[in-house]
From TrEMBL:
Gene encoding the protein: HUS1B
Pfam families (alphabetical): Hus1
Family statement drawn from the similarity comment of this UniProt entry: Belongs to the HUS1 family.
Organism expressing this protein natively: Sapajus apella
Coiled coil: none
An annotated GO cellular component: nucleolus
Protein name: Checkpoint protein
GO biological process: double-strand break repair via homologous recombination; meiotic DNA integrity checkpoint signaling; mitotic DNA replication checkpoint signaling; mitotic intra-S DNA damage checkpoint signaling; nucleotide-excision repair; telomere maintenance
Domain of life: Eukaryota
Amino acid sequence: MKFRAKIIGKGSLDLFIQVSSTVARLVKVCVLRVCPDRMCFGSAGSGGLQEARLWCEVQQRAFQQFRMEGVSEELNEIHLELMAEHLSRAARSAVGASSLKLQLTHKRCPCLTVVVELASPLGRVRSVMHDLPVRVLPRRVWRDCLPPSLSASDVSIYLPRWRTLRSIVERMVNVGDHVLLEANLSGKMTLSIETEVVSIKSYFKNLGNPPKSAVGVPQNRDLESMVQVRVDNRKLLQFLEGQQINPPTALCNIWDNALLHLVLVQEDVSLQYFIPAL
């Protein structure tokens, strides 16, 4: 197995720093899946949706150099398990750097080596190296590292302004543990929380639905009917506070009383977060 990648330029470096920081805020241990055309970050542990799960993809074109050889020609992939905070800390050291290199190495144990090149005021290049211990995952557990396979959602809707949504959820966390999210195919969404003492509900309209959201919908379905899912308020807030990517497209998919699926899409990056219903 071999893997080597290089990032050059402020825009690409900033994007990788944002991605690694977001991953570290959402999971403690992550699985890094390296494929010929992309690099993926996923939640560690067995597959399934008993708890919130992450899946993030960074396309090969986000790197200026990207070479890899998997375990075989038929299975041209590499799966590594590592501490997400270790990678985030190494990436943050590349702020203001000229380049960042990633390489799979073996130094007493398998490592993901991160080399950051910093230019000094005198024009000299100073290199900072981080050796991050990793666990090479055997093929028998690869399937557990993939995102869940899901049928078409009951509702798909664009999210409101990020800052507004985060502010509302922050206030709701202080009221109760569970938040009810409802949405329909007419661009409407509500967030509500109710206790014995207080009831709070926020309304959004004209959010819009992705074009494909109506595919397969029965003709007799009422587009105003709401689909709902109740989730852990702190898990939702963790996602809203954790993402650093600031993508142009943010939406959520809802399976009625089953699952909340949050999706962020940028040119070279996509991030998905799955929160099971309570």
